[in-house]
């Protein structure tokens, strides 16, 4: 309807015979393509905020309108009996690598048959939030059979997150050989908490590793300190060397692996359709955050944020500060995020480009609809199962695969019914 007057105005302008100024038009002068109307209405049912005195920096930064998936869902248990499973990675033949926090790695068929534990992995410090965490297939797996994983590495004086890679030797008794530690989070600290641990390969052959600030005060104060890996996203090459185009590669005294800073504890990370990194971090009470970490930027922790200590004590004087980035979205009360995928499959066309996040304390699979890098709708799926969801990945078949965090953890598959 708006194109007709625009054509008239444009024709009059081009002919040079109009003395009448054209009607005001939006900058750019083009009619945007038609889109579905944005969701509206009340947010997801979630209880009152813990920190009502903090207000969002822009509309829609929290409590986006509730949305509902139209497709009926089928949730199938593929396997169970995992002891606190943590991560899934698909092999090229559709079998899965599945980690357990206490240190075991399994190969699981699409039908749910588990291999014996893969032999040869190094020891882990599994206290607290530690253990064997994420696993990924190397980008050149077909040639190299290299797999990559994160774990809390026991060290003199404490521990730290480490990234290792090794060649997977498949068979009746699978094992890894030529184990190499390619990254060590420094400094070493005696903490059983907040070391992050997600791995994300990018199509240009780089590897993002998400880290945390160790929770205890001695670590927390290092989250914006470039001499420390705590509270950072780091970016490395698959052999552990440092890409020269990293933002602090030439900064004296900075750890060159750093990509972004000011994070609390990132347990969710994924690439979008433009191969941009998105993360969700465990916040304090009332302060879980969705961010899109960009090179060299400071995401504010512990200076700014929307939460408070679990004791109820304040942490932040303000939610905003110059030179510090706002989260794309935050949750108060928290969801306790772990695992993330941005949907690109064909099984659920209505989910394309939606963000899925596992929810631990929220016992939900959290779905976000995003437009122009803002969250415009939120849904909590699978809440009837009352399960802590540790991991969500998209399978090669376009289904979502989940792990529940329990001593009898399940591997679940979500498809249309
Ligand atoms: Ca932040």
UniProtKB/TrEMBL annotation:
Signal peptide residue numbers: none
The Glucose/Sorbosone dehydrogenase domain covers which part of the protein? Answer: 83-413
Pfam families, sorted = GSDH
Xref: SUPFAM superfamilies: Soluble quinoprotein glucose dehydrogenase
Report biased composition (Pro residues) as residue ranges. Answer: 24-51
- Coiled-coil annotated spans: none
Which segments carry the region annotation Disordered? 17-60
Q: What is this protein called?
A: PQQ-dependent sugar dehydrogenase
Organism of derivation: Archangium minus
Q: What is the lineage of its organism?
A: Bacteria, Pseudomonadati, Myxococcota, Myxococcia, Myxococcales
């Amino acid at each position: 309807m708006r194109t007709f007057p625009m054509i008239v105005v444009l024709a009059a302008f081009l002919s040079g015979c109009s003395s009448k100024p054209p009607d005001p038009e939006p900058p750019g002068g083009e009619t945007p393509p038609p889109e579905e109307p944005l969701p509206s209405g009340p947010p997801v049912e979630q209880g009152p905020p813990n920190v009502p005195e903090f207000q969002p920096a822009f509309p829609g930064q929290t409590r986006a309108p509730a949305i509902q998936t139209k497709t009926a869902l089928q949730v199938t248990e593929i396997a169970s009996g995992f002891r606190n499973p943590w991560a899934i990675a698909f092999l090229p033949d559709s079998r899965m690598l599945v980690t357990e926090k206490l240190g075991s790695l399994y190969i699981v068929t699409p039908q749910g048959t588990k291999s014996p534990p893969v032999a040869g992995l190094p020891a882990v410090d599994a206290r607290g939030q530690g253990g064997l965490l994420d696993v990924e297939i190397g980008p050149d797996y077909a040639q190299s059979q290299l797999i990559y994983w994160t774990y809390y590495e026991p060290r003199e004086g404490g521990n730290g997150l480490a990234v290792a890679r090794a060649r997977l030797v498949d068979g009746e008794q699978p094992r890894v050989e030529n184990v190499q530690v390619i990254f060590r989070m420094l400094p070493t600290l005696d903490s059983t908490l907040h070391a992050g641990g997600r791995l994300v390969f990018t199509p240009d052959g780089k590897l993002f590793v998400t880290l945390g600030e160790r929770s205890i005060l001695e670590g927390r104060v290092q989250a914006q300190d470039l001499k420390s890996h705590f509270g950072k996203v780091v970016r490395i090459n698959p052999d552990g060397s440092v890409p020269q185009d990293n933002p602090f590669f030439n900064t004296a005294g900075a750890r060159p692996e750093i990509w972004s800073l000011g994070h609390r504890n990132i347990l969710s990370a994924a690439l979008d359709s433009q191969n941009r990194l998105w993360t969700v971090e465990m916040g304090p009470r009332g302060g879980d955050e969705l961010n899109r970490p960009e090179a060299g930027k400071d995401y504010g922790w512990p200076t700014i944020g929307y939460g408070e200590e679990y004791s109820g004590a304040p942490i932040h004087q303000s939610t905003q500060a110059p030179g510090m980035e706002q989260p794309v979205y935050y949750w108060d009360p928290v969801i306790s995020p772990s695992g993330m995928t941005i949907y690109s499959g064909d099984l659920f066309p209505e989910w394309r480009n939606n963000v899925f996040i596992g929810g631990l304390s929220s016992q939900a699979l959290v779905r976000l609809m995003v437009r122009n890098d803002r969250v415009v709708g939120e849904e909590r799926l699978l809440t009837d199962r009352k399960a802590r969801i540790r991991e969500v990945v998209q399978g090669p078949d376009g289904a979502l695969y989940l792990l529940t965090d329990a001593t009898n953890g399940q591997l679940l598959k979500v498809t249309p019914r």
